[in-house]
Amino acid sequence: MKPIVVLGSGLAGYTLVRELRKLNREIPITLISRDSGDYYSKPMLSNAFAQGKDAASLVLTTAAEMAAKLGITLLAKCEVSAIDRTNKALDTTSGLIEYDRLVLALGADPMRIPLPGDAADAVLSVNDLSDYAQLRERLATAKSIVIMGAGLIGCEFANDLAVEGYTVSVIDPGPYPLASLMPEQAGGQLLKPLADLGVAWRFGTAVQRVDKALSGYALTLTDGTVIHADLVLSAIGLRPRIQLAREAGLEVNRGIVVNERLQSTDQSVFALGDCAEIDGKVLPFVLPIMHAGRALAKVLNGDDAQVDFPAMPVVVKTPAHPVAVSPVARDALGSWQTLATGNGISMGFFDPQDRMTGFVLTGVYAGERNEMAKKINI
Which helix (H) or strand (E) is 224 found in, with range? Predict the structure, then answer.
């Protein structure tokens, strides 16, 4: 009997395997990982430094322990170069691997802006344990840090590193923090609390080039300003890994296109997690991944199931000023309305029928996210 093969050992891949094992202990499963296959919490990468955690201490369960616990075959440090859909096989560095059904839980890559300058290759991105280990090594001799991007990950790193005494500058071409997730009244709530930690905000500009300096790096910004830093961290977003699926002839858009059963344009190939596009949406957050993993486990077990997303607040880990948001599409019809203010803000997004379809809570209101989620009209 050919196995179900899962490509990817992140939250998506392991959530799926765990949920499938709850339903079926007999079905053969092979999990292929391009890295060690150790299980860790990727969201922890952006707030682990202030907790004193190195890369090794972030590992919750080793690959060998996961394989034994879940009763699966785990191939670590294995790269997949091609999907042969006709013969239902994968061309890998571990040889040809056949599958009955294939699940793509490939994740996403950090977006990188092509930058001129003789130090452009020194810009770091943190997307996995090895990246985090490199960051910690570089931080040992750094005092000043520039973070490119004031989105979720950029703000989390800014809070984490500023708490530890680093001089942090955040540079973003947008007008305020978290601009892709919330209105300015809410995003602006982060400005002073993080500034009080020592974070310097620079909006309406971007890094144009990175050059070596006598000490550290010189960054030329698009507004002509030159600033210096010992370390440059890029946190401008993620791009779903779709190349393997595209080369296999599967439909791709922003992500690998799947239906409500997480099924691609090939009935034997599924996708979930950061690489998947479900109903036109890429949802690179913990709760959507877990809901999708549970649904796909049922589908692979032969059940008549599909993913049905409830309201899923996103928590931004900025202890200086906590944030929880249930985002709405950029082209959603309606408007943001302020519900309460005072050491934070509570806002709801209301559609033309006056139904709340999203919200943002900051500061003292962030803890109300579960109650607010019950009021969302999906």
Answer: none
